[in-house]
Amino acid sequence: MPTVAITRGVSPGIGACELGFLEREPIDVDRARAQHAAYESVLEGLGCRIFRLEAEAGLPDSVFVEDTAVVLDEVAIITRPGAASRRPETGAVAAVLGRYRPLLHIVAPATLDGGDVLRTGRRLYVGRTARSNEAGIAQLRELVRAYGYEVRPVAVRDCLHLKSAVSAVSASALLLDPTHVDPADFGDHEVLEIPDGESGAANALLLGESVLIPTGCPATRDMLAAMGMDVVEVDNRELAKAEGGLTCCSLIVATGEREHAV
Ligand code: CIR
Question: Which residue's CA is minimally distant from atom 3 of ligand 1?
């Protein structure tokens, strides 16, 4: 199926990004841009058409487009990010997503970050984090109910987003860091715990039959490869200093043949 990956250029202001759990360290914008471009090339190589939004100097975190929307088969939900500085990011993303899906919106006082929403089939796991509040979870539940999706809140400990700690690596398997989420919350899935010391690998991006994981996680790579998965390593070290992972930098949209009128 034709697939679009919506991305956004790395802001020259990325050094002023929001941080939840990391100490601030300098980010080399040129290196971040080179790594981001390589990431886009990987997506392109795996069959995505890249729709790259312009970098925004005044929106330090705008490269992390995942947080601005939840894309489902039938609709897309434009979020209201938990960090106030990130709320102006949604407009440009909504303008593009509106071509492909009818849009629904999370509204105040609710907050929700797309990084807190993990979809498996017709179920949406939603992380309870500093970024996604109870009103956000409740609004999401109401918005998607008509489309047959069930929303399941999940506790997240000591990390930014749910998907920092658990992500899908196949239609049935989840890759998970048990220091941040409880494997029992995902009991009816095959749960693969990340090898010791490779916490960053818990944020993997499944694209078709391929799984993107960050470089520097050889035990995870070997574990997934031994299960027959096509594993692609992507160097994301510069944006990782801004607490961004591989899912964060794109919104993957299966487009079918039709586009909606804008
Ligand atoms: C933030 O704190 O919002 C950004 N510095 C990082 C966002 C990463 N996004 C994600 O995990 N989905």
Answer: 18
